[in-house]
Amino acid sequence: MKLSIKSGLLLLAFILPGFSRLSAQTSSGYSLQQLIDAAMNNSHLLSIREYQVQEKMSKLKEDEIKRYPSATLDGSYQYNFSLPEITIPAGTIETGNPLLPSEDRKFTVGEKSTYNVGFNIYQPITQQFKMNTGLSIDRTDIKLGQKEKEKTALQMQLAIEQLYYGALIAQKQIEGTMARLELVQARLYDAESALAAGKTTGVNLSGLRAGISGEEQNLLKLDIQVEDYLTELGRLTNLHVLKLQAAEPGNMMVNPVDEYKLAAISNPDMEIARLYKEKALLGIKAAKQSNLPDFGVIAGYYVQKGSAVLPGNSPYVGLSMKWNIQDLFSNKQVQNQRQYQLKQAEETIAYTQQQVESDIDKAWRKVKQSDAMIIAAQKLAGYRKEVLKEQQDRQATGLDMKTVLLEAKSQLAEAEADLYAAQLSKVLAIAALRNLAGQTK
């Protein structure tokens, strides 16, 4: 019995350190960078964007192949129930006297079974111009796909930052709410004690209980808000997010607003707008090139059996031209459509630039507003700390009630929550500026 107890203790000695390390890793929570990395690696939307790029790259390779000669192999087999014949009437061939033939003659020019096999090569010439333009359009589509992927990644990073900091702000607000709840509970306890001892009769117990219910309701709202943030983070990262690492805002460097506007010229939205303009110009060029006839070189080899009139085999070479005259009229409308697409692209560039600059100004104002809120919140939090220290000193000498100390703690917790919210609001505004400038970090 003693041996088994000793063995069990030794086993626990080995297991508990490992369990404590595992618990520490699990309880530390996810950092912002871990969440961003997980989202980039596990996002289905980013995978879709990547596959779209790969699809367009394959389309480019397909169109490049069409520039080279196209080879076709064709053949047929035919069984003739009634063979074709040629009739030469008597006396139709003048060879002197007498005329030939002396009577009508019939000649069979085919066999029951006939077959032919042909190998053809066609090299387009005039269509090379339009094909080159099509390849340029394909390359533009690839760039568009890459910029769409980059835009999606930036949007996802900003969404994670917003959820991450939003959850931390809500968690800090929970601390303040819990401090207020503790204060109201203490006041209710004191009021009930005084009423039971007959020291007072004018206590509003219902009001205090309503205050407790109100704080409990606020606490529940904040808990639900945090749960929603963590659930959404889990969806974006494909992780089971239960806890987040605390973030210390610290000193955050902010560049002048003009630098963000200058960098925003190359952000994904602006690049996408410019690429659509480039694609519209290429579309106009391709529509004009469609007016050219389809002219090319054709060559091949032909083998047949069953017809006495045609040669048994024959190589050949020649020129081919095909020109749909209707295209001269319909392509004019196609060019008009492309022109309207170009005008749309130009308006989109102007609108996007205006929108980006407006969003940068808005985020910049948010930074400056947050700076002002931080200064005010720091000042208030400093005063609240002084008040708490004074109440703690009075409490130590027995000169003050516990509820007064709890009120000071509650006010300090609320002030610190406001300060933390202002600091993280500035972080979020800076993150929005980086996002608009097309910067990851």
Description:
- The chain contains nine helices and six strands; from the N terminus they run H-H-H-E-E-E-E-H-H-H-H-E-E-H-H.
- By secondary structure, it is an alpha+beta fold.
- The chain has a single domain (29-436), classed as Outer membrane efflux proteins (OEP), CATH 1.20.1600.10.
- Helix 8 (326-396) packs antiparallel against helix 9.
- A four-stranded antiparallel beta sheet has the order 1-4-5-6, with no helix packed on it. Strands 2-3 form a two-stranded antiparallel sheet.
- Helix content is 67%, strand content 13%.
Record field, number of beta strands: 6
Shape verdict = elongated
By helix and strand content, what is the structural category?
A: alpha+beta
Global mean pLDDT:
86
Highest CATH level, the class: Mainly Alpha
Secondary-structure arrangement, i.e. CATH architecture: Up-down Bundle
Helix content range of the residues, please?
55-70%
Q: Total number of helical segments?
A: 9
CATH superfamily: Outer membrane efflux proteins (OEP)
The helix-strand sequence is: HHHEEEEHHHHEEHH
Gyration radius, rounded = 42 Å
Strand order in space, largest sheet: 1-4-5-6
What is the CATH topology?
Outer membrane efflux proteins (OEP)
Percentage beta strand: 5-15%
Question: Sheet bearing the most strands, described?
Answer: 4 strands, antiparallel
Uncertain spans, ≥5 residues at pLDDT below 50?
1-26
Integer count of domains: 1
Distance between the termini: 62 Å
